[in-house]
Amino acid sequence: MGIKVVKFGGSSLCDAEHFKKVREIVLDDPARCYVVPSAPGKRFDGDEKVTDLLYRCYRMVELNQSHEEVFARIADRYLSIVEELGIDFDMRPILSETCDAIRRRRSVDFAASRGEYLCGIVLAKYLGWDFIDPVDVIKFDRRGAFAAEWTNEMLMRAMEDHPRAVIPGFYGSYPNGDVHTFSRGGSDVSGAIVARAAEADVYENWTDVNGFLMADPRVVDNPRTIRQLTYRELRELSYMGATVLHEEAIFPVHKAGIPTNIRNTNNPEDPGTLIVAQPTEESFATPITGIAGHKDFTLITIDKAMMNAEYGFGRRVLQALEDFDVSFEHLPTGIDTMCVIVSDRELSTRKDQIIQRIRQTCQPDSIEIQSGLALIATVGYGMVRRRGTAAKLFKALYEADVNVRMIDQGSSELNIIVGVDTADFETAMRAIYHAFVGA
Question: Of 133, 139, 123, whose CA–CA distance to 35 is shortest?
């Protein structure tokens, strides 16, 4: 029998009814041996996530204000879950100690991590499984960088003694034992780390959606679910704005070659989206895998005659960006033209200095600045084997009366990126989707 590691997000553990769904899912498959929970999320509109309440507790402690009233709301969440599930477990001493520890330690990471810690304890009691505290097995170095190999060794050793266990997500510890957290959404990272250590056959990430969608549902009505994609396609789509998994959660399982299955806790019969390491025949079955995009970019166009013959020209342009701590997104080029696409957020306060530096070091014939650019990536291995993919894409934009301001295609033919006016972003997204998928 293989091993599956299952991670459940906050929406999947928001109340007792969802805990029951989680238990049913876990026990339905004997291969599901390790569970990585997030802290309870929102139960309804206007509700607050437990993690947000814990951050508020920390801020109150820092201001020398009493945090007990806010923590009481957190305690009530857990006590009501335990009571409604009928678990024979008095949680009050642990909750009292946690409230006191937040005040004593005055650590934002410790406070924030207690949502997962407490949730993990409750879920372990409910399943009748062992509890492994990430403080003991997920490690960061003294600078706060994740210690991947040390962690893998510690986790593998713990798993030998605990063949079925709950391991909370989001946090671990420094070498001295102090709690340190990943960034928000870091339970996805924890789940992938546990999957790697378990040498799992599959890492299941359970959330409140059926998987990745081919396009943003806020832009395209009822987009199809992507049934399979590669980690590389996922990287392209998530970079351009498609968000289901925490971005850093891709790497541990990708490195180990472990597939990730995105599933819906509220619809466990749906197969979800399977993310695989290498493309299969299914990867080439459809012309595209998905579409994603971002707004708010600036296009810097630098013209200079005989640019291609001038040694170091491109390096000096990029050095101007580096000197002001600005990264670039894309570099479309021509014989005498070099374009740099930069996020408006990165460029906002440094545009004039960067342009001046480029003028000084590169002495271009002209520099043109165009703001209000949106980037749209059409991604998929299927594009490689199908003639006319680019023609279909640009025909769709033409018929939708969308002007294309920039085109960039990687040599791997995995994606085609177009730049359009921000005002045309939604129109362009819908036009591309319907051209390849239909109405």
Answer: 123
For 311-361, how does the pLDDT look when each residue is reduced to its tens digit (9 = 90+)?
A: 999 999 999 999 999 999 888 888 899 999 999 988 888 899 999 999 999
Tokens representing residue 358 in the block = 């480029």
For residue 160, count other CB atoms closer than 10 A to its CB: 7
Percent of the chain scoring above 70 in pLDDT:
96
Distance CA 344, CA 400 (A): 26
Percent pLDDT > 90 in the chain is 79
Angle between helices 425-437 and 389-399 (to 10 degrees): 130
Cβ-based neighbours of 202, under 8 Å, separated by 6 or more: 2, 4, 5, 258, 259, 260, 261
Which amino acid appears at position 160 of this protein? Answer: E
